[in-house]
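pipeline stage [seq->struct] | target=Alpha/beta hydrolase | organism=Ktedonobacter robiniae | residues=295
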Amino acid sequence: MENRKGNAGEIARLLAQASDGTSVRAEAEGEGRVILILHPGMNTAKSYEKVAARLGRQYRVIRLHRRQYRLDLKTDPLRGSPCTVAEEVEHVLAIVKAVGEPVFLFGHSSGGTVALEALVASPSSFVGGMIYEPALVLGSADGLHLAGDWIERNSEVGEGLRRARQALAKGQPGRAIGIFTQVIAGWQDFLANSAGALTALVPAYRQLIPCQIDDLEAMERLGIRLDAYSKLKLPVAMVCGERSPDGNLEMVSAVADVLPRGERITLSRQGHACHVRDPQKLADVIENFAKRVFE
């Protein structure tokens, strides 16, 4: 275990092993009851460093390095090699087992979907959870879809994912993430490609682009899961930003409507990135709900 200094004291690196033998890595800081954070796509555990520092004054906060974004676990880190959501859940449960007590689980975007699946897979491992705008597959007349793309009946990925994979194979990560932005946000080709090109210029983001494409495919292959979430008896808060896109709000509402003990929280003047724009606001929201759940 390696320690380093953080805003809430020492930050320890936690190591564990999943049931399939793969290594599990996380960062931990603070003391007290445990809050486990699953970061969003195109990010690492570092993206929640500021939120964790604030929560670490009252809790032991663990930030998992999600398996989908672990380059050391990729068989082809340049072209992408997705793991399943179930495999990501195994990493979550391995950390909870290492902690030795039920934890409060927080997940953001695709990390929120992984969090929901972990809550369903092992409810006794958790006291409750908070989900910030999960990436969900919802139903449509055309089949399964996630904001415009879909997995076809023959299990082949949708056209957007196919084109993104082709771009990665040609060594064009900027084009790949541009296609992703078209699929998820519905941006026009010129704007999406321009944003993708700028993203690919940042080394830290460039290396995560194949992981993001993998993440989208894993979310698609998970399929519609609202029925499973409707059986979840734990207290779960669904969080959305007041300024978030309509598609994100639709996904939050879809889950909030089926959760037996769910409630909805709206972040005023925020969108999908409150952890960056106002980490104190998000930390306060997490802390207030976690406190109620732990009591």
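stage status: PASS
auto-comment: Residues 143-220 form one domain. The chain has a mean pLDDT of 92.
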